[in-house]
Amino acid sequence: MLTEQTVRELEQTARNLRVEILKMLNVARSGHTGGSLSAIDVLTVLYFHAMRHDPSNPAWEDRDRFVLSKGHAAPALYACLAEAGYFSRDDLKTLRRFGSHLQGHPDMNKTPGVDVCTGSLGQGLSQAVGLALAARLQGKSSRVFSLLGDGEVQEGQIWEAAMAAAHFRLDNLCVILDHNGLQIDGEVAKVMNVAPLGPKFLAFNWHVLEVDGHDVQAICRAIDDAGQCKEQPTMIIARTVKGKGVPFFEHKASYHGVPPSDDELVRALEHLGHA
Amino acid sequence: MIATRDAYGQTLLELGRENPKVVALDADLSGSTKTSLFAKEFPARFFNVGIAEANMVGMAAGLAAGGMIPFASTFAVFAAGRAFEQIRQSLAYPRMNVKVVATHGGITVGEDGGSHQSVEDLAIMRALPNMTVLCPADGPETTAAIRAAAAFHGPVYIRLGRSKVPTVFAGGCDFAIGRGATLREGTDLSFITTGLMTAQAIKAAGILAEEKISARVIHLGSIKPLDVDLVLRAARETGAIVTAEEHSVVGGLGSAVCEVLAEGHPVPVERVGLHDVFGQSGTAEELLVHYGLTAAHLVEAAERVLKRKA
Fold first, then answer.
1. Interval B224-261: pLDDT, tens
2. Strand pairing partners for A239?
Protein backbone atom coordinates (compact mmCIF):
# COMPACT_ATOMS: atom_id res chain seq x y z
CA MET A 1 0.00 0.00 0.00
CA LEU A 2 1.06 3.53 -0.74
CA THR A 3 1.60 5.83 2.18
CA GLU A 4 -0.10 9.19 2.08
CA GLN A 5 3.30 10.78 1.95
CA THR A 6 4.25 8.80 -1.18
CA VAL A 7 1.00 9.85 -2.83
CA ARG A 8 1.68 13.50 -1.98
CA GLU A 9 5.22 13.22 -3.31
CA LEU A 10 4.06 11.69 -6.59
CA GLU A 11 1.41 14.40 -6.97
CA GLN A 12 4.02 17.07 -6.36
CA THR A 13 6.39 15.45 -8.87
CA ALA A 14 3.62 15.40 -11.48
CA ARG A 15 2.92 19.08 -10.82
CA ASN A 16 6.60 19.91 -11.27
CA LEU A 17 6.78 17.87 -14.45
CA ARG A 18 3.76 19.73 -15.87
CA VAL A 19 5.75 22.91 -15.37
CA GLU A 20 8.77 21.41 -17.16
CA ILE A 21 6.57 20.24 -20.06
CA LEU A 22 4.99 23.68 -20.51
CA LYS A 23 8.35 25.46 -20.29
CA MET A 24 10.11 23.20 -22.80
CA LEU A 25 7.22 23.39 -25.27
CA ASN A 26 7.15 27.17 -24.95
CA VAL A 27 10.86 27.36 -25.74
CA ALA A 28 10.59 24.82 -28.56
CA ARG A 29 7.72 26.77 -30.16
CA SER A 30 6.26 23.51 -31.44
CA GLY A 31 5.19 20.16 -30.01
CA HIS A 32 2.29 18.36 -28.40
CA THR A 33 0.94 19.99 -25.27
CA GLY A 34 -2.47 18.39 -24.68
CA GLY A 35 -1.43 14.75 -24.86
CA SER A 36 1.71 15.34 -22.78
CA LEU A 37 -0.35 16.84 -19.96
CA SER A 38 -2.96 14.07 -20.10
CA ALA A 39 -0.24 11.40 -19.83
CA ILE A 40 2.05 12.89 -17.20
CA ASP A 41 0.40 11.44 -14.09
CA VAL A 42 0.68 7.91 -15.52
CA LEU A 43 4.30 8.52 -16.52
CA THR A 44 5.08 9.94 -13.08
CA VAL A 45 3.83 6.77 -11.43
CA LEU A 46 5.80 4.61 -13.87
CA TYR A 47 9.13 6.44 -13.54
CA PHE A 48 8.99 7.38 -9.87
CA HIS A 49 7.17 4.43 -8.34
CA ALA A 50 6.41 1.38 -10.49
CA MET A 51 9.33 0.77 -12.85
CA ARG A 52 12.61 -0.85 -11.98
CA HIS A 53 15.26 1.24 -13.72
CA ASP A 54 18.61 2.86 -13.06
CA PRO A 55 19.27 6.32 -14.52
CA SER A 56 23.00 5.87 -13.88
CA ASN A 57 22.95 2.73 -16.05
CA PRO A 58 20.40 3.17 -18.85
CA ALA A 59 21.56 -0.07 -20.54
CA TRP A 60 20.99 -2.21 -17.42
CA GLU A 61 19.78 -5.49 -18.92
CA ASP A 62 17.36 -6.36 -16.13
CA ARG A 63 15.53 -3.05 -16.19
CA ASP A 64 11.83 -2.74 -16.87
CA ARG A 65 11.11 -1.30 -20.33
CA PHE A 66 8.85 1.51 -21.40
CA VAL A 67 7.47 2.05 -24.88
CA LEU A 68 5.82 5.42 -25.48
CA SER A 69 3.65 4.20 -28.33
CA LYS A 70 2.01 7.63 -28.52
CA GLY A 71 5.42 9.07 -29.30
CA HIS A 72 4.18 12.64 -29.73
CA ALA A 73 3.91 12.84 -25.93
CA ALA A 74 7.73 12.90 -25.94
CA PRO A 75 7.86 16.08 -23.79
CA ALA A 76 6.21 14.15 -20.94
CA LEU A 77 8.75 11.34 -21.31
CA TYR A 78 11.71 13.75 -21.52
CA ALA A 79 10.52 15.59 -18.39
CA CYS A 80 10.47 12.27 -16.49
CA LEU A 81 13.88 11.17 -17.79
CA ALA A 82 15.46 14.50 -16.83
CA GLU A 83 13.82 14.46 -13.40
CA ALA A 84 15.02 10.88 -12.86
CA GLY A 85 18.56 11.92 -13.77
CA TYR A 86 19.15 10.36 -17.19
CA PHE A 87 20.33 13.78 -18.38
CA SER A 88 20.42 17.39 -17.26
CA ARG A 89 17.20 19.35 -16.87
CA ASP A 90 18.89 22.11 -18.90
CA ASP A 91 18.74 19.80 -21.94
CA LEU A 92 14.95 20.18 -21.96
CA LYS A 93 15.40 23.68 -23.37
CA THR A 94 16.88 22.10 -26.53
CA LEU A 95 13.73 20.10 -27.34
CA ARG A 96 13.27 19.79 -31.14
CA ARG A 97 16.30 21.97 -31.85
CA PHE A 98 18.88 21.08 -34.49
CA GLY A 99 21.59 18.94 -32.90
CA SER A 100 19.62 18.20 -29.73
CA HIS A 101 19.39 14.65 -28.39
CA LEU A 102 15.74 15.45 -27.68
CA GLN A 103 14.10 14.77 -31.03
CA GLY A 104 10.50 15.65 -31.89
CA HIS A 105 9.64 12.00 -31.29
CA PRO A 106 11.56 9.54 -29.05
CA ASP A 107 14.84 8.22 -30.46
CA MET A 108 16.56 5.33 -28.65
CA ASN A 109 19.87 6.10 -30.35
CA LYS A 110 19.96 9.71 -29.21
CA THR A 111 18.31 9.99 -25.81
CA PRO A 112 19.57 8.10 -22.73
CA GLY A 113 16.69 6.16 -21.19
CA VAL A 114 14.58 5.82 -24.33
CA ASP A 115 14.07 2.11 -25.04
CA VAL A 116 12.71 2.17 -28.62
CA CYS A 117 11.99 4.65 -31.41
CA THR A 118 8.34 5.61 -31.67
CA GLY A 119 6.25 8.32 -33.25
CA SER A 120 4.51 6.60 -36.13
CA LEU A 121 1.30 5.68 -34.33
CA GLY A 122 0.31 2.06 -33.94
CA GLN A 123 3.83 0.61 -34.00
CA GLY A 124 4.87 0.81 -30.36
CA LEU A 125 2.63 -1.92 -29.00
CA SER A 126 4.15 -4.52 -31.35
CA GLN A 127 7.59 -3.57 -30.09
CA ALA A 128 6.39 -3.87 -26.50
CA VAL A 129 5.13 -7.39 -27.33
CA GLY A 130 8.58 -8.25 -28.73
CA LEU A 131 10.32 -6.84 -25.65
CA ALA A 132 8.04 -8.87 -23.37
CA LEU A 133 8.82 -12.03 -25.34
CA ALA A 134 12.55 -11.29 -25.17
CA ALA A 135 12.37 -10.88 -21.38
CA ARG A 136 10.53 -14.17 -21.06
CA LEU A 137 12.96 -16.03 -23.36
CA GLN A 138 15.85 -14.77 -21.24
CA GLY A 139 14.15 -15.76 -17.99
CA LYS A 140 14.14 -12.16 -16.76
CA SER A 141 11.55 -10.83 -14.35
CA SER A 142 11.49 -7.47 -16.19
CA ARG A 143 8.10 -5.96 -16.91
CA VAL A 144 7.28 -4.10 -20.10
CA PHE A 145 5.08 -1.03 -19.94
CA SER A 146 3.60 0.88 -22.84
CA LEU A 147 1.40 3.94 -23.18
CA LEU A 148 -1.09 4.15 -26.04
CA GLY A 149 -3.26 7.02 -27.18
CA ASP A 150 -6.97 6.51 -27.72
CA GLY A 151 -6.85 7.93 -31.25
CA GLU A 152 -3.90 5.60 -31.83
CA VAL A 153 -6.01 2.47 -31.43
CA GLN A 154 -7.65 3.38 -34.75
CA GLU A 155 -4.49 1.91 -36.31
CA GLY A 156 -5.04 -1.72 -37.37
CA GLN A 157 -1.60 -2.79 -36.17
CA ILE A 158 -2.70 -2.17 -32.56
CA TRP A 159 -5.22 -4.97 -32.88
CA GLU A 160 -2.70 -7.30 -34.53
CA ALA A 161 -0.44 -6.69 -31.54
CA ALA A 162 -3.35 -7.01 -29.08
CA MET A 163 -4.12 -10.43 -30.53
CA ALA A 164 -0.49 -11.49 -30.27
CA ALA A 165 0.01 -10.27 -26.69
CA ALA A 166 -2.92 -12.38 -25.49
CA HIS A 167 -2.01 -15.33 -27.72
CA PHE A 168 1.49 -15.45 -26.22
CA ARG A 169 0.06 -14.97 -22.69
CA LEU A 170 2.31 -12.02 -21.94
CA ASP A 171 1.58 -11.38 -18.27
CA ASN A 172 4.77 -9.30 -18.07
CA LEU A 173 3.17 -6.71 -20.37
CA CYS A 174 1.20 -3.84 -18.87
CA VAL A 175 -0.30 -1.31 -21.25
CA ILE A 176 -1.92 1.95 -20.26
CA LEU A 177 -4.32 3.68 -22.62
CA ASP A 178 -4.37 7.47 -22.28
CA HIS A 179 -8.08 7.90 -22.93
CA ASN A 180 -8.43 11.67 -23.25
CA GLY A 181 -11.11 11.45 -25.93
CA LEU A 182 -9.51 13.90 -28.35
CA GLN A 183 -7.35 13.64 -31.45
CA ILE A 184 -6.04 16.22 -33.92
CA ASP A 185 -9.23 16.56 -35.92
CA GLY A 186 -11.54 16.62 -32.91
CA GLU A 187 -13.35 14.14 -30.66
CA VAL A 188 -12.24 10.53 -31.09
CA ALA A 189 -15.91 9.52 -30.93
CA LYS A 190 -16.69 11.74 -33.92
CA VAL A 191 -13.55 11.24 -36.03
CA MET A 192 -13.70 7.43 -35.77
CA ASN A 193 -15.36 6.00 -32.74
CA VAL A 194 -13.22 3.51 -30.78
CA ALA A 195 -15.76 2.86 -28.01
CA PRO A 196 -16.34 0.62 -26.21
CA LEU A 197 -12.63 0.12 -25.44
CA GLY A 198 -12.88 -2.10 -22.35
CA PRO A 199 -15.06 -4.75 -24.02
CA LYS A 200 -12.82 -4.73 -27.10
CA PHE A 201 -9.71 -5.63 -25.11
CA LEU A 202 -11.71 -8.09 -22.98
CA ALA A 203 -12.79 -9.77 -26.19
CA PHE A 204 -9.12 -9.92 -27.23
CA ASN A 205 -8.46 -11.88 -23.99
CA TRP A 206 -6.77 -9.09 -22.04
CA HIS A 207 -7.08 -8.39 -18.33
CA VAL A 208 -8.78 -4.98 -18.39
CA LEU A 209 -8.86 -2.30 -15.69
CA GLU A 210 -10.27 1.21 -15.77
CA VAL A 211 -8.96 4.05 -13.63
CA ASP A 212 -8.96 7.80 -13.26
CA GLY A 213 -5.72 8.58 -15.09
CA HIS A 214 -5.00 11.59 -12.88
CA ASP A 215 -5.38 9.72 -9.55
CA VAL A 216 -1.87 8.52 -8.78
CA GLN A 217 -3.08 6.16 -6.07
CA ALA A 218 -5.52 4.49 -8.46
CA ILE A 219 -2.85 4.22 -11.15
CA CYS A 220 -0.43 2.60 -8.68
CA ARG A 221 -3.08 0.11 -7.57
CA ALA A 222 -3.89 -0.84 -11.16
CA ILE A 223 -0.22 -1.38 -12.02
CA ASP A 224 0.18 -3.57 -8.92
CA ASP A 225 -2.94 -5.49 -9.90
CA ALA A 226 -1.51 -6.03 -13.38
CA GLY A 227 1.66 -7.43 -11.82
CA GLN A 228 -0.41 -10.13 -10.07
CA CYS A 229 -2.26 -11.14 -13.22
CA LYS A 230 -1.13 -14.48 -14.69
CA GLU A 231 -1.19 -15.67 -18.29
CA GLN A 232 -2.77 -12.47 -19.63
CA PRO A 233 -1.52 -9.03 -20.65
CA THR A 234 -3.13 -6.12 -18.81
CA MET A 235 -4.80 -3.07 -20.35
CA ILE A 236 -5.34 -0.17 -17.97
CA ILE A 237 -7.75 2.26 -19.53
CA ALA A 238 -6.85 5.57 -17.92
CA ARG A 239 -9.61 8.15 -18.21
CA THR A 240 -7.78 11.40 -18.69
CA VAL A 241 -8.29 15.02 -19.66
CA LYS A 242 -6.37 16.45 -22.57
CA GLY A 243 -4.39 19.46 -21.33
CA LYS A 244 -4.97 18.41 -17.69
CA GLY A 245 -3.71 20.86 -15.09
CA VAL A 246 -4.10 24.02 -17.15
CA PRO A 247 -7.80 24.97 -17.20
CA PHE A 248 -7.70 26.90 -20.47
CA PHE A 249 -6.04 23.94 -22.25
CA GLU A 250 -8.30 21.25 -20.87
CA HIS A 251 -10.67 19.33 -23.16
CA LYS A 252 -9.39 21.22 -26.22
CA ALA A 253 -8.40 19.32 -29.37
CA SER A 254 -6.94 22.59 -30.65
CA TYR A 255 -4.08 22.20 -28.16
CA HIS A 256 -3.10 18.77 -29.52
CA GLY A 257 -0.05 20.01 -31.36
CA VAL A 258 0.24 23.62 -30.19
CA PRO A 259 2.76 24.85 -27.61
CA PRO A 260 1.84 27.48 -25.02
CA SER A 261 2.54 31.08 -26.03
CA ASP A 262 4.54 33.30 -23.68
CA ASP A 263 1.34 34.73 -22.22
CA GLU A 264 -0.28 31.30 -21.87
CA LEU A 265 2.85 29.98 -20.16
CA VAL A 266 2.71 32.77 -17.53
CA ARG A 267 -0.95 32.09 -16.83
CA ALA A 268 -0.41 28.30 -16.77
CA LEU A 269 2.51 28.56 -14.33
CA GLU A 270 0.46 30.85 -12.10
CA HIS A 271 -2.24 28.24 -12.04
CA LEU A 272 0.27 25.51 -11.15
CA GLY A 273 1.70 27.67 -8.37
CA HIS A 274 5.00 28.26 -10.15
CA ALA A 275 4.64 31.92 -11.01
CA MET B 1 19.44 -27.30 -58.24
CA ILE B 2 18.04 -25.97 -54.98
CA ALA B 3 15.65 -23.14 -54.13
CA THR B 4 17.26 -20.36 -52.15
CA ARG B 5 14.43 -20.58 -49.61
CA ASP B 6 15.44 -24.20 -48.89
CA ALA B 7 19.02 -23.13 -48.24
CA TYR B 8 17.65 -20.45 -45.90
CA GLY B 9 15.55 -22.91 -43.90
CA GLN B 10 18.54 -25.18 -43.36
CA THR B 11 20.91 -22.32 -42.49
CA LEU B 12 18.46 -20.75 -40.05
CA LEU B 13 18.17 -24.11 -38.31
CA GLU B 14 21.98 -24.32 -38.01
CA LEU B 15 22.16 -20.76 -36.67
CA GLY B 16 19.50 -21.70 -34.12
CA ARG B 17 21.68 -24.56 -32.92
CA GLU B 18 24.75 -22.33 -32.71
CA ASN B 19 23.26 -19.27 -31.06
CA PRO B 20 20.40 -19.28 -28.52
CA LYS B 21 19.74 -15.61 -29.28
CA VAL B 22 18.49 -16.43 -32.77
CA VAL B 23 14.67 -16.36 -32.96
CA ALA B 24 12.35 -16.64 -35.94
CA LEU B 25 9.02 -15.06 -36.82
CA ASP B 26 6.64 -15.90 -39.60
CA ALA B 27 3.20 -14.79 -40.75
CA ASP B 28 1.43 -18.08 -41.51
CA LEU B 29 3.79 -19.03 -44.34
CA SER B 30 6.40 -21.03 -42.45
CA GLY B 31 5.97 -24.06 -44.71
CA SER B 32 6.67 -21.91 -47.76
CA THR B 33 9.43 -19.71 -46.32
CA LYS B 34 11.02 -22.79 -44.71
CA THR B 35 11.17 -21.27 -41.22
CA SER B 36 9.17 -24.41 -40.35
CA LEU B 37 12.47 -26.30 -39.98
CA PHE B 38 13.53 -23.91 -37.21
CA ALA B 39 10.03 -23.95 -35.69
CA LYS B 40 10.07 -27.73 -35.36
CA GLU B 41 13.36 -27.87 -33.46
CA PHE B 42 13.00 -24.61 -31.51
CA PRO B 43 9.27 -24.09 -30.84
CA ALA B 44 9.98 -21.76 -27.90
CA ARG B 45 12.03 -19.46 -30.12
CA PHE B 46 9.60 -19.41 -33.02
CA PHE B 47 6.66 -17.00 -33.21
CA ASN B 48 3.95 -17.46 -35.77
CA VAL B 49 2.08 -14.15 -35.66
CA GLY B 50 -0.70 -15.22 -38.00
CA ILE B 51 -1.52 -13.18 -41.08
CA ALA B 52 -0.25 -9.92 -39.61
CA GLU B 53 2.99 -8.80 -41.21
CA ALA B 54 3.02 -5.30 -39.73
CA ASN B 55 2.91 -6.71 -36.22
CA MET B 56 5.51 -9.33 -37.12
CA VAL B 57 8.04 -6.64 -38.03
CA GLY B 58 7.23 -4.62 -34.90
CA MET B 59 7.58 -7.69 -32.68
CA ALA B 60 10.90 -8.48 -34.33
CA ALA B 61 12.03 -4.94 -33.50
CA GLY B 62 11.04 -5.41 -29.86
CA LEU B 63 12.82 -8.77 -29.67
CA ALA B 64 15.95 -7.14 -31.09
CA ALA B 65 15.66 -4.26 -28.59
CA GLY B 66 15.53 -6.97 -25.93
CA GLY B 67 18.80 -8.49 -27.13
CA MET B 68 17.64 -11.28 -29.45
CA ILE B 69 18.60 -11.79 -33.13
CA PRO B 70 15.28 -12.08 -34.97
CA PHE B 71 14.77 -13.46 -38.47
CA ALA B 72 11.34 -12.44 -39.79
CA SER B 73 10.02 -14.13 -42.92
CA THR B 74 7.13 -13.86 -45.32
CA PHE B 75 6.75 -13.39 -49.08
CA ALA B 76 8.63 -10.41 -50.54
CA VAL B 77 5.42 -8.72 -51.64
CA PHE B 78 4.14 -8.66 -48.05
CA ALA B 79 7.47 -7.91 -46.36
CA ALA B 80 8.55 -4.95 -48.46
CA GLY B 81 4.99 -3.95 -49.35
CA ARG B 82 2.54 -4.59 -46.54
CA ALA B 83 5.07 -3.98 -43.77
CA PHE B 84 7.04 -1.21 -45.47
CA GLU B 85 6.39 1.47 -42.92
CA GLN B 86 7.08 -0.88 -40.03
CA ILE B 87 10.40 -1.75 -41.65
CA ARG B 88 11.08 1.96 -42.08
CA GLN B 89 10.13 3.15 -38.59
CA SER B 90 10.78 0.15 -36.38
CA LEU B 91 13.84 -1.36 -38.13
CA ALA B 92 15.70 0.98 -40.47
CA TYR B 93 15.33 4.28 -38.57
CA PRO B 94 16.52 2.84 -35.22
CA ARG B 95 19.03 0.47 -36.93
CA MET B 96 17.43 -2.56 -35.25
CA ASN B 97 19.28 -5.85 -35.49
CA VAL B 98 16.52 -7.62 -37.43
CA LYS B 99 16.88 -9.75 -40.56
CA VAL B 100 13.91 -9.65 -42.91
CA VAL B 101 14.21 -12.73 -45.09
CA ALA B 102 11.69 -12.38 -47.89
CA THR B 103 11.03 -15.43 -50.01
CA HIS B 104 9.00 -15.65 -53.22
CA GLY B 105 10.65 -12.60 -54.75
CA GLY B 106 10.16 -11.90 -58.45
CA ILE B 107 8.07 -13.56 -61.14
CA THR B 108 9.27 -17.12 -60.58
CA VAL B 109 6.60 -17.30 -57.87
CA GLY B 110 4.70 -18.46 -60.93
CA GLU B 111 1.10 -19.60 -60.87
CA ASP B 112 -0.04 -17.37 -57.98
CA GLY B 113 0.17 -14.48 -60.42
CA GLY B 114 1.04 -10.79 -60.37
CA SER B 115 -0.54 -10.06 -56.98
CA HIS B 116 2.07 -12.29 -55.36
CA GLN B 117 5.09 -11.50 -57.53
CA SER B 118 7.20 -8.74 -56.03
CA VAL B 119 8.94 -6.79 -58.80
CA GLU B 120 9.66 -3.68 -56.73
CA ASP B 121 10.96 -4.85 -53.34
CA LEU B 122 14.65 -4.25 -54.07
CA ALA B 123 13.88 -0.67 -55.13
CA ILE B 124 11.82 -0.02 -52.00
CA MET B 125 14.35 -1.51 -49.59
CA ARG B 126 17.30 0.13 -51.34
CA ALA B 127 15.73 3.54 -50.78
CA LEU B 128 15.82 3.13 -46.99
CA PRO B 129 18.78 4.65 -45.11
CA ASN B 130 20.59 2.15 -42.83
CA MET B 131 19.24 -0.82 -44.80
CA THR B 132 21.43 -3.57 -46.23
CA VAL B 133 19.90 -5.37 -49.23
CA LEU B 134 21.06 -8.82 -50.37
CA CYS B 135 19.92 -10.96 -53.29
CA PRO B 136 21.82 -14.27 -53.47
CA ALA B 137 22.21 -16.25 -56.71
CA ASP B 138 21.89 -19.80 -55.43
CA GLY B 139 21.87 -22.16 -52.47
CA PRO B 140 25.50 -21.86 -51.35
CA GLU B 141 25.45 -18.07 -51.58
CA THR B 142 22.18 -17.95 -49.65
CA THR B 143 23.79 -19.92 -46.85
CA ALA B 144 26.75 -17.55 -46.82
CA ALA B 145 24.54 -14.45 -47.03
CA ILE B 146 22.28 -15.58 -44.17
CA ARG B 147 25.36 -16.23 -42.04
CA ALA B 148 26.86 -12.85 -42.96
CA ALA B 149 23.57 -11.14 -42.07
CA ALA B 150 23.47 -12.90 -38.70
CA ALA B 151 27.01 -11.75 -37.95
CA PHE B 152 26.27 -8.16 -39.00
CA HIS B 153 24.64 -5.87 -36.42
CA GLY B 154 21.79 -3.98 -38.09
CA PRO B 155 18.77 -4.39 -40.33
CA VAL B 156 19.18 -6.57 -43.42
CA TYR B 157 16.69 -7.39 -46.19
CA ILE B 158 17.43 -10.66 -47.98
CA ARG B 159 15.49 -11.53 -51.11
CA LEU B 160 15.04 -15.22 -51.92
CA GLY B 161 13.06 -17.18 -54.48
CA ARG B 162 10.49 -19.92 -54.64
CA SER B 163 11.80 -21.98 -57.56
CA LYS B 164 14.81 -24.24 -57.72
CA VAL B 165 17.78 -22.48 -59.31
CA PRO B 166 21.08 -23.79 -60.74
CA THR B 167 24.10 -23.66 -58.48
CA VAL B 168 26.56 -20.92 -59.42
CA PHE B 169 28.92 -21.15 -56.46
CA ALA B 170 29.57 -24.88 -56.67
CA GLY B 171 33.06 -24.49 -55.22
CA GLY B 172 31.79 -22.61 -52.16
CA CYS B 173 31.01 -18.97 -51.70
CA ASP B 174 33.26 -16.37 -50.12
CA PHE B 175 30.44 -13.90 -49.44
CA ALA B 176 30.84 -10.49 -47.86
CA ILE B 177 28.27 -7.71 -47.52
CA GLY B 178 29.15 -4.99 -50.04
CA ARG B 179 31.38 -7.17 -52.20
CA GLY B 180 30.62 -8.51 -55.67
CA ALA B 181 32.13 -11.53 -57.41
CA THR B 182 33.69 -11.78 -60.86
CA LEU B 183 32.58 -15.18 -62.11
CA ARG B 184 34.06 -14.96 -65.60
CA GLU B 185 36.67 -12.62 -67.04
CA GLY B 186 35.92 -10.76 -70.25
CA THR B 187 37.00 -7.70 -72.23
CA ASP B 188 34.23 -6.68 -74.68
CA LEU B 189 31.37 -6.10 -72.22
CA SER B 190 30.28 -6.96 -68.68
CA PHE B 191 27.14 -8.60 -67.42
CA ILE B 192 26.32 -7.26 -63.96
CA THR B 193 23.56 -9.39 -62.49
CA THR B 194 21.89 -10.45 -59.29
CA GLY B 195 19.74 -13.31 -57.99
CA LEU B 196 18.85 -16.07 -60.39
CA MET B 197 19.84 -13.98 -63.46
CA THR B 198 23.52 -14.63 -62.73
CA ALA B 199 23.20 -18.26 -63.86
CA GLN B 200 21.67 -16.96 -67.11
CA ALA B 201 24.53 -14.50 -67.56
CA ILE B 202 27.09 -17.29 -67.27
CA LYS B 203 25.19 -19.19 -69.95
CA ALA B 204 24.97 -16.10 -72.15
CA ALA B 205 28.71 -15.46 -71.82
CA GLY B 206 29.32 -19.00 -73.08
CA ILE B 207 27.11 -18.41 -76.12
CA LEU B 208 28.84 -15.10 -76.86
CA ALA B 209 32.26 -16.75 -76.63
CA GLU B 210 31.31 -18.92 -79.60
CA GLU B 211 30.77 -15.66 -81.52
CA LYS B 212 34.21 -14.50 -80.40
CA ILE B 213 32.70 -11.96 -78.00
CA SER B 214 34.37 -11.83 -74.60
CA ALA B 215 31.84 -11.11 -71.83
CA ARG B 216 32.75 -10.59 -68.19
CA VAL B 217 30.22 -11.84 -65.61
CA ILE B 218 29.91 -9.97 -62.34
CA HIS B 219 27.47 -11.11 -59.70
CA LEU B 220 26.29 -8.61 -57.10
CA GLY B 221 24.69 -10.54 -54.24
CA SER B 222 24.89 -7.34 -52.22
CA ILE B 223 22.66 -4.70 -53.82
CA LYS B 224 23.28 -2.28 -50.99
CA PRO B 225 25.99 -1.53 -50.21
CA LEU B 226 27.01 -1.94 -53.86
CA ASP B 227 30.54 -2.93 -54.90
CA VAL B 228 31.21 0.41 -56.59
CA ASP B 229 34.87 -0.35 -57.39
CA LEU B 230 34.00 -3.58 -59.17
CA VAL B 231 31.30 -1.87 -61.25
CA LEU B 232 33.54 1.06 -62.23
CA ARG B 233 36.40 -1.26 -63.12
CA ALA B 234 34.07 -3.25 -65.38
CA ALA B 235 33.02 -0.02 -67.11
CA ARG B 236 36.63 1.15 -67.57
CA GLU B 237 37.94 -2.21 -68.76
CA THR B 238 35.06 -3.45 -70.93
CA GLY B 239 33.30 -0.20 -71.92
CA ALA B 240 29.76 -1.64 -72.03
CA ILE B 241 27.41 -3.05 -69.40
CA VAL B 242 24.33 -5.27 -69.43
CA THR B 243 22.50 -5.49 -66.11
CA ALA B 244 19.96 -8.20 -65.38
CA GLU B 245 17.57 -8.79 -62.49
CA GLU B 246 14.31 -10.60 -61.80
CA HIS B 247 12.82 -7.26 -60.80
CA SER B 248 11.64 -4.04 -62.36
CA VAL B 249 14.35 -2.04 -64.10
CA VAL B 250 13.01 0.89 -62.05
CA GLY B 251 14.97 1.29 -58.84
CA GLY B 252 16.67 -2.09 -58.60
CA LEU B 253 20.11 -3.35 -59.61
CA GLY B 254 19.99 -1.74 -63.07
CA SER B 255 19.24 1.64 -61.54
CA ALA B 256 21.90 1.22 -58.86
CA VAL B 257 24.55 0.38 -61.47
CA CYS B 258 23.48 3.30 -63.70
CA GLU B 259 23.74 5.70 -60.77
CA VAL B 260 27.31 4.61 -60.14
CA LEU B 261 28.24 4.77 -63.84
CA ALA B 262 26.62 8.14 -64.50
CA GLU B 263 28.71 9.72 -61.77
CA GLY B 264 31.87 7.65 -62.13
CA HIS B 265 32.43 6.38 -65.68
CA PRO B 266 29.53 6.66 -68.16
CA VAL B 267 29.35 3.82 -70.72
CA PRO B 268 26.46 2.33 -72.73
CA VAL B 269 24.13 0.20 -70.57
CA GLU B 270 21.28 -2.16 -71.41
CA ARG B 271 19.01 -3.07 -68.52
CA VAL B 272 17.35 -6.47 -68.57
CA GLY B 273 14.42 -6.85 -66.18
CA LEU B 274 10.71 -6.15 -66.06
CA HIS B 275 10.05 -2.91 -67.90
CA ASP B 276 7.64 -1.21 -65.52
CA VAL B 277 5.02 -3.96 -65.62
CA PHE B 278 3.52 -6.42 -63.14
CA GLY B 279 3.74 -10.17 -63.61
CA GLN B 280 0.98 -12.71 -64.26
CA SER B 281 0.16 -16.39 -63.78
CA GLY B 282 2.21 -19.05 -65.54
CA THR B 283 5.06 -21.40 -64.85
CA ALA B 284 8.36 -19.84 -63.78
CA GLU B 285 9.91 -20.90 -67.09
CA GLU B 286 7.08 -19.42 -69.18
CA LEU B 287 7.28 -16.14 -67.32
CA LEU B 288 11.07 -15.85 -67.60
CA VAL B 289 10.72 -16.29 -71.38
CA HIS B 290 7.76 -13.91 -71.64
CA TYR B 291 9.46 -11.12 -69.72
CA GLY B 292 12.79 -11.57 -71.47
CA LEU B 293 14.83 -12.99 -68.60
CA THR B 294 16.76 -15.81 -70.29
CA ALA B 295 20.30 -16.34 -71.55
CA ALA B 296 19.08 -15.76 -75.11
CA HIS B 297 17.70 -12.36 -74.12
CA LEU B 298 20.98 -11.50 -72.43
CA VAL B 299 22.84 -12.36 -75.65
CA GLU B 300 20.54 -9.98 -77.57
CA ALA B 301 21.09 -7.26 -74.98
CA ALA B 302 24.86 -7.79 -75.28
CA GLU B 303 24.68 -7.37 -79.05
CA ARG B 304 22.64 -4.18 -78.66
CA VAL B 305 25.05 -2.67 -76.17
CA LEU B 306 28.08 -3.54 -78.32
CA LYS B 307 26.52 -1.60 -81.24
CA ARG B 308 26.30 1.43 -78.99
CA LYS B 309 29.87 1.08 -77.76
CA ALA B 310 32.04 3.79 -79.29
1. 999 999 999 999 999 999 999 999 999 999 999 999 99
2. A179, A212
Percent of the residues in chain A that have a pLDDT greater than 70, as a whole number: 99
Q: Please tell me the distance in Å from A169's CA to the nearest CA on chain B.
A: 13
The whole-number pLDDT of residue A274 equals 83
SS3 for chain B is CEEHHHHHHHHHHHHHHHCCCEEEEECCCHHHHCCHHHHHHCHHHEEECCCCHHHHHHHHHHHHHCCCEEEEEEEHHHHHHHCHHHHHHHHHCCCCCCEEEEECECHHHCCCCHHHCECCHHHHHHCCCCCEEECCCCHHHHHHHHHHHHHCCCCEEEECCCCEECCCCCCCCCCCCCCCEEEECCCCEEEEECCCHHHHHHHHHHHHHHCCCCEEEEECCEEECCCHHHHHHHHHHHCCEEEEEEEECCCCHHHHHHHHHHHHCCCCEEEEEECCCCCCCCCHHHHHHHCCCCHHHHHHHHHHHHHHCC
| DSSP-assigned letter for residue A49 | I
B55-107 pLDDT, tens per residue? Answer: 999 999 999 999 999 999 999 999 999 999 999 999 999 999 999 999 999 99
Query: Could you say which DSSP state residue A101 is in?
Result: S
Question: How far is residue A85's CA from residue A87's CA, in Å, rounded to a whole number?
Answer: 5
Q: Is A109 on the interface with B (CB under 8 A)?
A: yes
- Torsions phi, psi for A43 (to 5 deg): -65, -35
Radius of gyration of chain B (CA): 19
Rounded to a whole number of angstroms, the distance from the CA of A16 to the nearest CA of chain B is 31
In this complex, is the C-beta atom of A69 within 8 Å of any C-beta atom belonging to chain B? no
Task: Name the pLDDT band for A275 (thresholds 50, 70, 90).
Answer: low
Residue of chain B whose alpha carbon sits nearest to that of A168: B47
Residue B95: Cβ within 10 Å count: 17
- For the cut 70, the answer to whether the pLDDT of residue B118 exceeds it is yes
Chain A residues touching residue B62 (CB < 8 angstroms): 67, 116, 126-134
Q: Are B268 and B143 in contact (CB under 8 A)?
A: no
Q: Does A114 touch chain B (CB under 8 A)?
A: no
